[in-house]
Design brief:
The protein is of the alpha/beta class. The chain has helices at residues 4-10, 30-38, 41-46, 48-62, 75-79, 101-106, 112-115, 117-130, 143-152, 160-168, 170-194, 211-217, 219-236, 254-257, 273-280, 299-312, 333-349, and strands at 67-68, 83-87, 91-95, 136-141, 198-203, 243-247, 264-266, 285-290, 319-323. It binds coproporphyrinogen III.
Length: 353
C-alpha cells in the first residue's frame, strides 16, 4: 500500500514528498473528455462505475499519491432540495437562490445512505478497484463555500448577496449555516464509513472575508464539522482519518484558520509556503502551493518552481505537494506528468522530509 500521503498528513516520516492535484480528474485529460462526450456531468457524478473510472484516470496518467473521489461540492446541495444545473461556459446554476426564512425552513438535511447513496457506492467501488494502490480522499465543500452557492445561485464576483445576508439578517444566515453544517457533517461521516481514507473540506471562497468576519461567520461552522467528525471517529473506532482544510486566498487569515482543528491545512499560491508554515506552526501538516498557471511555463522553469516550493516547505511537520488551487482545463498534461516526477525525484534525492 502506498501510504506516503497518509503519513505526511499525520506528520510521520516519509521517503519522498507525496503529491496529488486538486481537480486532478477533469477536462485537461483526453480520457475524461471521451467519457464526458457520452454523458453529462451530473450523470457522471451519479453513476458509480463511471465516477470510479474517471477518479482512477489521473492515477494511471500522472502517478500521483492519492485519488480524490469524482463528484462535486454541489451534489449534497441538490439533495437539500435545490435545483442544480451545470451550464457550458456559465458554470453551476442553483435555483431558486436561498434568501428567505421560509426557504431555509424548507431545506432538507439529506440522509446520505438514501439520498446520496451513489456517492457512497462510488467510494465502495473505488476501494475495490484501487486495491490499496493509493489512498482515497473523500470531500465536501466547507459550510461557507457551500452556502455562497446556495445564496448567490451560482458563482459570484463580490459575494454581495452572501455578505448582505450576513450583515443585514445574521439570524437567517446562521439558520442556513446550521443546516448546511449538519448536512456536510453527516455526508463526510458517511463517506468515511463507506471507505474514504482522508476527507478534504474545500473552502474556496472563505478568503473573501476580513479576519474579524471570518472568525465570526466562517470558522465556528468549520470547527463544528471537524470536532463532530473527530469525536465520532473516537466513538466508532474508525482509526485516524486525516482531515484537510483548504482555504482559497488564505494569507490574511492563517492565524484564524489554524484554530480549525484539522490535520492538514491547504495553502494557495499567493503566499510563500515557508511564511505560511511559520505562521501556522507545527500542529498541522501543509498542502500546496504551486500557482496552477506555472504549468504553462517551459519544463525547466517548472522544475525551478517545484524545487523552491519543496525547499520552502522543508520546515513543515509534513508536506503534501499540490497546486494552490485546481488544475486548469487548458493545462498541457505532459507538464503535469513532469511536475509529479520532479516532486518525487527531487524530494527523494534531497531527502526533504
Ligand atoms: O478534484 C477532483 O478531481 C474531483 C472532482 C471535483 C470536481 N469539483 C469536479 C468538477 C472536485 C473536488 C470539485 C470541487 C468543487 N466544485 C469546488 C471546490 C474546488 C475548487 O475548484 O474551488 C467548487 C468551487 C466546485 C463548484 C463547481 N463545479 C464549479 C464552479 C464548476 C464549473 C467550473 C468548472 O470547473 O467547470 C464545477 C463543475 C465541475 N466540477 C467540473 C468538474 C470536472 C467540470 C464539469 C465538466 O466536465 O464540464
Amino acid at each position: 500500500m502506498n501510504d506516503v500521503f497518509l503519513k505526511a498528513c499525520r506528520g510521520e516520516k516519509v521517503p519522498y514528498t507525496p503529491v496529488w492535484i486538486m481537480r486532478q480528474a477533469g477536462r485537461y485529460l483526453k480520457q475524461y473528455q471521451k467519457i464526458r462526450k457520452k454523458v453529462d456531468f451530473l450523470t457522471l457524478c451519479k453513476t458509480p462505475e463511471l465516477a470510479a473510472e474517471v477518479t482512477i484516470q489521473p492515477i494511471d496518467a500522472l502517478g500521483v499519491d492519492a485519488a480524490i473521489l469524482f463528484s462535486d461540492i454541489l451534489i449534497p446541495v441538490e439533495a437539500m432540495g435545490l435545483k442544480v444545473r451545470f451550464l457550458e461556459k456559465k458554470g453551476p446554476v442553483l435555483s431558486p437562490p436561498v434568501r428567505s426564512e421560509s426557504h431555509v425552513k424548507k431545506l432538507l438535511i439529506p440522509k446520505p445512505e438514501n439520498d446520496l447513496h451513489f456517492v457512497l457506492d462510488a467510494i465502495k467501488v473505488l476501494r475495490k478497484e484501487l486495491h490499496n494502490r493509493v489512498p482515497l480522499i473523500g470531500f465536501s465543500g466547507a459550510p461557507l463555500t457551500t452556502a455562497t452557492y446556495m445564496i448567490e445561485g451560482g458563482s459570484s464576483k463580490n459575494f454581495l448577496q452572501t455578505k448582505k445576508m450576513i450583515f443585514q439578517t445574521p439570524d437567517l444566515f446562521s439558520a442556513l449555516m446550521d443546516k448546511v453544517t449538519a448536512t456536510i457533517t453527516e455526508y463526510l461521516k458517511a463517506q468515511i464509513k463507506a471507505g474514504a481514507q482522508t476527507v478534504q473540506l474545500f473552502d474556496t471562497w472563505a478568503g473573501i472575508f476580513s479576519p474579524v468576519d471570518y472568525r465570526a461567520y466562517v470558522l465556528p461552522y468549520v470547527k463544528r464539522v471537524i470536532k463532530d467528525i473527530k469525536n465520532w471517529q473516537k466513538l466508532n473506532k474508525t482509526g485516524h482519518i486525516p482531515i484537510i482544510y483548504f482555504v482559497g486566498a488564505c494569507c490574511g487569515l492563517l492565524e484564524e484558520i489554524k484554530m480549525c482543528g484539522a490535520d492538514v491545512l491547504g495553502v494557495d499560491w499567493r503566499i510563500n509556503i515557508e511564511d505560511a508554515i511559520k505562521r501556522i506552526g507545527n500542529r498541522y501538516s501543509v498542502q500546496g502551493n504551486l500557482d496552477p498557471c506555472t504549468l504553462f511555463m517551459p519544463k525547466d522553469k517548472i522544475k525551478d518552481r517545484v524545487k523552491s516550493v519543496l525547499k520552502n516547505a522543508s520546515s513543515a511537520r509534513g508536506h503534501i505537494f499540490n497546486l494552490g488551487h485546481g488544475v486548469l482545463p487548458e493545462t498541457p498534461v505532459e507538464n503535469v506528468v513532469s511536475m509529479v516526477e520532479m516532486v518525487h525525484s527531487y524530494s527523494q534525492a534531497h531527502r526533504i522530509l
